[in-house]
Recover the amino acids of this structure.
């Protein structure tokens, strides 16, 4: 008896091997596609990568994920990493401002307090500003709040006053998103917050309810060994499933004919064909590639995201070990208010104080600090582009000021600078509507989709959830 010929598996290509591209590739591979991942650089993972400093393998980019949903934990469990999910050690972060350093109030979202009159809130903004913020609890919620678009800054200023915005929200938001809260779409950076304000009749109650509803007690989680293990696990699974994983493969053009899509890589004579294509690059690159298929898509080209330079210092300074309760002199790290005159960095993460697994790996007295540079529209932004040696010297001085401990070059066991150009896209006001418009226009092209932080919003929780939702739809 003749065996019927098996239909060839349909081919899919993913452009960009960052986390969104790797997740899209996994969804497509699971759905039965033969998958090729085309990554321009010499490593997979994009912003979720590893580097080695003083013999320690550390996260070179993302080091945690938001726990407001179970999106990341669910994925980690599927990849067999669920047992390695960890949460930061007890001590929270601090705020460093012109007025001094104080613990960041604990029960907030993006710095917005869940209880404006809490002691730790009043310690930062003072009694008068706390009373103004508490007026939010009694103010009616107007219809305009539920409709149209709104920036994070607008919402906070309206409900709680400018001091909460300037002294609590701006330092957190510029640390996480490298953006001014007045430019950020509240629905993109704090999904569900506006609806919760309407439901609970106050911003503070909305924040408190969202925090209480978060699946884990901590606002963020991580992975023992570093978030870079997520990249390694996705790459390993894709290899197991027979995906072709190409590095140094910069896609320069997407062509289309009756049989599907042809992707040109670097030189025009190298090409990959596929019936399904997922574009998982940054926004400007994605739009430039797609606008060749439909020039109208060019209208959706976003501004390049903010650049950020990270300086990692590994120090031999037992003074940073901190108290028995865990945590160094400034807990898990310090967010810097733009008005702080003495510090150029926008944030410092005390990684060995934040993550128990890393403290164990580094050993007593050895500390890992990570400082980030690259503020918006400020003189302080220029340092991010300085040479490595200048950044290192600035980072050492900033770390000393932020931690209140003298630090000298002889304390440094190793250091590294990692630069991300345009890696933090801004979800500006109207983001949701623009994404919907862009994706509706893309729907005209069968088998073509786009994912990534420029569409989902920055952060692993957003990227993982959106990429999985999109690529599942596109393979159904
Ligand atoms: C320094 C830093 C720290 C962060 N920390 C956190 C954190 O702690 N927690 C958190 O949740 N989020 C964090 N984020 C944000 C989070 O890492 C990102 O939102 C997420 O990783 C973005 O994934 P992506 O796949 O959309 O984009 P990317 O990681 O930017 O990947 C895009 C990929 O596309 C490739 N590419 C571009 N053009 C082409 C082309 N023409 N052809 C082929 N390939 C191409 C790029 O080389 C890159 O690998 C951080 C980001 C940065 C920069």
């Amino acid at each position: 008896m003749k065996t019927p010929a098996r239909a060839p598996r349909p081919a899919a290509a993913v452009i960009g091997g960052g986390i969104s591209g790797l997740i899209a590739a996994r969804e497509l591979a699971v759905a039965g596609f033969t998958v090729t991942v085309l990554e321009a650089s010499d490593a997979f993972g994009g912003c979720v990568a590893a580097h080695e400093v003083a013999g320690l393998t550390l996260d070179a980019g993302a080091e945690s994920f938001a726990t407001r949903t179970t999106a990341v934990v669910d994925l980690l469990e599927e990849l067999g990493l669920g047992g390695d999910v960890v949460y930061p050690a007890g001590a929270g972060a601090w705020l460093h401002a012109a007025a001094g350093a104080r613990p960041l109030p604990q029960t907030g979202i993006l710095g917005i307090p869940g209880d404006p009159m809490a002691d730790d809130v009043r310690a930062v903004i003072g009694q008068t500003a706390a009373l103004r913020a508490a007026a939010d609890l009694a103010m009616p919620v107007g219809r305009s709040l539920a409709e149209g678009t709104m920036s994070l800054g607008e919402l906070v200023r309206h409900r709680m006053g400018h001091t909460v915005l300037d002294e609590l929200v701006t330092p957190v938001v510029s640390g996480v998103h490298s953006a001014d809260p007045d430019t950020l779409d509240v629905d993109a950076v704090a999904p569900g917050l506006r609806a919760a304000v309407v439901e609970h009749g106050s911003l503070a109650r909305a924040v408190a309810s969202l925090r209480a509803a978060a699946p884990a007690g901590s606002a963020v989680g991580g992975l023992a060994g570093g978030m870079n293990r997520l990249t390694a696990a996705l790459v390993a699974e894709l290899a197991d499933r027979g995906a072709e994983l190409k590095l140094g493969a910069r896609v320069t053009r997407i062509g289309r004919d009756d049989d599907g899509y042809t992707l040109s890589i670097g030189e025009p004579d190298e090409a990959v064909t596929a019936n399904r294509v997922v574009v998982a690059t940054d926004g400007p690159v994605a739009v430039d590639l797609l606008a060749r298929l439909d020039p109208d898509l060019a209208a959706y080209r976003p501004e390049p995201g903010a650049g950020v330079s990270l300086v990692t210092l590994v120090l031999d300074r037992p003074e940073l070990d901190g108290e028995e309760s865990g945590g160094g002199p400034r807990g898990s790290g310090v967010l810097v208010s733009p008005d702080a005159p003495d510090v150029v960095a926008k944030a410092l993460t005390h990684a060995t104080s934040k993550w128990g697994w890393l403290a164990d790996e580094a050993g007593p007295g050895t500390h890992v600090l990570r400082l980030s540079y690259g503020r918006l529209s400020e003189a302080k932004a220029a340092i991010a582009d300085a040479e490595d040696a200048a950044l290192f010297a600035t980072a050492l001085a900033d770390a000393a000021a932020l931690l209140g401990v003298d630090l000298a070059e002889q304390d440094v066991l190793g250091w590294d600078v990692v630069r991300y150009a345009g890696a933090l896209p801004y979800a500006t006001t109207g983001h949701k509507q623009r994404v919907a418009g862009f994706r509706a226009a893309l729907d005209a092209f069968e088998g073509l989709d786009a994912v990534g932080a420029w569409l989902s919003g920055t952060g692993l929780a957003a990227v993982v959830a959106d990429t999985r939702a999109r690529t599942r739809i596109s393979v159904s």
Summary: The mean pLDDT is 90.
